[in-house]
Amino acid sequence: MFVETLAKVDYSLRPITTLLPAPLIIRTYSFGRRWFLNRLFNSPPKEKILIPDKYSRKILGLEFQSPIFNAAGIFKEGFGYELAWREGAGAFLMGTITPSFRQGNRKDGYYLPFIPLPKSGSAINWLGLPNAGFEEIAKRVQNIEKHSGCPIGVSIAADPTAQGLDSLNGVLNGLEIFSNSQADFIELNESCPNVPHEHSDYHGSSIDSKLVERLEWISNNFLQKRKRHFPVIVKFSLDTKPEQIEELLRLLIDLGFDGVNFGNTSTDYEYYSQYLTNHEKQNFNYFTQKFGGGLSGEILKAKSLELCKIAQQLLAKIQPHNEFVIIRTGGISSADDLQASSDNLIMLNQWFSGYFENFAKNGHQLYSKILS
Ligand SMILES: Cc1cc2nc3c(=O)[nH]c(=O)nc-3n(C[C@H](O)[C@H](O)[C@H](O)COP(=O)(O)O)c2cc1C
What we know:
alpha/beta, TIM Barrel, binds flavin mononucleotide
């Protein structure tokens, strides 16, 4: 009850906070987010909230009690399974986890900076993948008491400070560790804007050759050798160009990946700033000039639908031999959004910003409300 009331109060006060100086908002919310999340994970609803059977679906051999679940970044440290399952989430996605412990980004006295831009329903963060590392999180996976209808996904990424073979071996180690745990699927994060990624120098509309090399290597060294059913999907940025999707899909399907997620936060500041109010623009400019960061929330809704729609249409054309899933993430916050996904045959959705917005409105009933 306490976390629900707190979320409601915060939600009603947020629009006023836009008027405060940016440094104060960043400090308050960067600390407040973490404090709130720790309480939320330990406050699941007393009883499991019933999700009617008609919303459950079997995808990639896994049973999802509903078509929507949390995006990576909420359950970064692997705590909160009971909360997600009892609320009615289709799955529990932990991470993003990297090979070893990372404290995350810190600059000029700001730790894990985040700023809400509530009038436009968005936010921007520069967290930099704080997490406890593969070994520690795998122990936490083993401690979870699993329930049917709520599979465990683990979002993993390479160590941003490693390069070449070291970086690939790190990811391989993670895939092996989690495939030997009770995790059910992996989401490979190829898109965090807040840490460096290895890129080639080429910037055309073709996909990056270093990315192709990485995916091929993972296919040869892990996907083709899997000892059990263990789907691996790849999460890309919502800044992916529509014209790159066909090449990406064909590559992922040929290599034996099981799905794709569009996607991760955006760094297209110029494009999205048109949707911000004047006050928000000041805060946004302060944040992006100081840290950079990835944009999340409502303003990504149209883009996530556009990219997933294209992907789904291409999938119908390619007709892969094996099941391949398109997951939509970005700006999902309402029943209409889920309907738009389902109208375009997008069967799985993830939410981050929308989760908190709906939690403020409906508390633990948020899944049953958005589905009905
Ligand atoms: C504070 C914060 C932390 C995030 N951390 C991660 C992460 O660790 N891994 C990841 O793949 N995405 C991460 N994301 C991106 C979200 O998973 C999601 O892709 C993005 O926020 C767009 O969805 P939304 O519009 O529902 O927020 C994070 C987003 C936010 C706002």
